[in-house]
Amino acid sequence: MNPLLRSIDDCLLTVKVYPRDVKIHLNALNPPKFISEPEKEKRQAKRSKIVKFTQKSARNLRHLIRNSEDTWKVFITLTYPQNFPCNGRETKKHLNAFLQYLRRKHIKFIWVLEFQERGAPHYHLIVSDFINRNDLSRVWYRIVESQDEKHLKAGTGVESIKSKNHLYGYLSNYIKKLNQETPPAGFDNVGRFWGASRNLLTFETYQKINHYYKLAFMIKIIRKWYKAHLRQFGIKWRWKGLGFTALDGTSLVNRLMSLKR
Length: 261
Known about the structure:
The strands form two sheets. Strands 6-3-5-4-7 form a five-stranded antiparallel β-sheet, with helices on both faces. Strands 8-1-2-9 form a four-stranded antiparallel β-sheet. The mean pLDDT is 85. It is elongated. It contains nine helices and nine strands. β4 and β5 form a beta hairpin.
């Protein structure tokens, strides 16, 4: 039985409406249960070490870019010279110094870590404003203390985002390469594979507490629409009774909310 049904008269429906997508979740509002000491220790344990770019991480990255797509203007690539660090903590220090440079210019960003065939880390970024190529090269050259003139000339790349298709094509290529990827042998403390500026996403939140079946009925139109929407792409989808993200569902939810007003 679905765990929500155990608290059938006391469930919370949360609907978050983003610029393109809608996140829907149903929670059972059960009273807190007794938690044993071993379970407490397990919950308080430190976050496990990141060793690969996962499907969940890819979904989160797609969601962020889909719902901030009008923000992005430029692709940036940051590479290392022939001699490169093999420790994620050191490369993240370099990256953070570069991100501080962007913050001072009030430029928003999303960054993704990738590894070249030679094992060297490099970073791909999408940013909200244009940066002069020469300035970019000098800043990154100085941050990594390269001392390699070839790296000064070819260590960075800048490309304007021509369209949303261009943006998503670029994103898809990197997610395909990164998906389930692990760092090369000898590279330690990889850390996060991607990150972004804070508060990139705007959304509205609607919440309601009621009987589980009443709440499930309230979102029936959205569920049916989403099932048909995915069917156009040959994707079969079945609601499991808890929550889902309705891609491109914002226009439908906004129409439904306007009817209630």
